[in-house]
Specification:
- This protein has helices at residues 2-18, 25-35, 43-51, 58-68, 72-77, 98-108, 112-126.
- Helices cover 62% and strands 0% of the residues.
- The chain has seven helices and no strands.
Amino acid sequence: MGNEHEKFSHRLAQAMQQAGYEPRPSVLFRLFNAHYRGRSVSVQTTSRWLSGQAIPAQDKLQVIADLLGVEPHALRFGASARSRVAESRAVWPVGVGSRERNVIDSYLQLPPKKRDLVGELVKALSDNG
């Protein structure tokens, strides 16, 4: 069982790094609690997740996966555990962090008319004259 926990902690740390976060308990603590709608977790809890002592419950795992832009199943069990063929994920340019990816994901979920409005706003803000 300990090996499973260690593998999870490695995948979690790796996902945090790829999302532009330092894989430290205090970073995960702040990030997680800012987005989780349930009872907040302690720094000790996030430390146990990152040190291979514990694996978060499914609801917490889902929040972490969403924040880091990874599939919950892949975070929990590893990419090789997937039983279906997945669409390849886009490679983000260096410097594009999770905040920008979340904004883009939110934009893509808007209906077409609202996308047009956001596009006009971005264009107006980016014009230099």
